[in-house]
Amino acid sequence: MSPASHTLPLSLLRTFILLSSLLLALSACRVDGGYSVSDLTLERDGWDSVNVTVAFVHNGVLGGSAAASPEEFAVSLFDSRFDTLYAGSDTIIAVPDASLLDGEALLVEVCGTFGKAVVCEQKGLRASSKRIRVRQRIDYPQNGDIERGNYDFDFVVERQVWNSEEWETIDRSRDVRGFVLAYVDGFEEEGVKIPFGRRTGRFNLARLDNFRDFRYYLRSKLLEENEARVRFAVYAGLGGDEVRVADDEKIIRKKAREIRELEAGYFVEQAAREILGRLTSFFGPSRSYVYLDSWQFVEGERHYTIDIELTWSSSFFRQRWYRISGTLRVDENGGGASFLRMRGNERGIERWHDRIDGNELRLGDLEPRPEADTRFSFHDED
What we know:
Layout: H1 10-28, E1 35-43, E2 49-59, E3 65-68, E4 72-78, E5 84-88, E6 92-94, E7 105-114, E8 117-126, E9 130-139, E10 148-160, E11 167-170, E12 177-184, E13 192-196, E14 200-204, H2 211-225, E15 227-237, E16 243-253, H3 257-279, E17 287-298, E18 303-314, E19 320-331, E20 337-344, H4 346-355, E21 360-364, E22 377-380
Antiparallel strand pairs: 1-2, 2-3, 2-6, 4-5, 4-7, 7-8, 9-10, 10-11, 10-14, 12-13, 12-15, 15-16, 16-22, 17-18, 18-19, 19-20, 20-21
């Protein structure tokens, strides 16, 4: 008889082969679950430091994990521009909060090294809330000139006290930068931006963008209402976005006719001395008279036109009388003065031709009347 034969069912054979292959694979290569950060905690008891607590684990192949200690450990602190504020292995690190922006976003990164593997984790925090206060003095228009002014700022920088509604001063006033927006009331979008980087300074609006629109609305208000409100909004920051921290206002009024007449007379006195100095002898006139016949202030061009007559006598040998008349033109601030001769007696015209080429004498800049502003009267709005 042939020996008895024993065979396995096909389904059991397949199961046996599958289990054998799996056991063979596991015995040939153990799969490592790797390392990870199980916990990262940031604790603070103030704005100027942070306590970093971190835990690493080794993850098993079939689940489960065990605490692990890295061979090397590193902590980094970055600001919102990803500049490094700290790099080392300390777990209590200093935060330069006073030098940071208002509520600036910060990032803490911890990394552990396990052989060739580096495991990292990140967590965010924020700097303190900060604010800027200012006591401002804005002098505008300077010497009556609507183009010019100056400013004097006293900035105070504060941060919010930790876990409190109170504020404390920090030494950052020198870091304040920003701009002043000057605009005619009701026309803020047509305002002029005056940048500043120092506590005190001067400005010339005519050199800045939008000045033509600003000047147009200012003159329109003065012509229509005889006064205009010019507002100054102070925007300041510590290197981030500037915020509005203060407002100032000046009320500018057209000058009364009586003040204009005094100014015209003051210009005539100076112009007459200059003209007579050019036309008379070395010893000067024995007698002289200056007549202001009429005057006009041209609002659109901001200058005076003044009709004057000059009469003088010479007694070097015998008394002779000279007379000329013409128009003095001078800007409101005294600049660009000139005299255009129109008429005169025979001696006066002859003397003019002897001493002066042409009919116009340029006088340069005259001094504005010191007792009043040269263009507008103004006061601070309380």
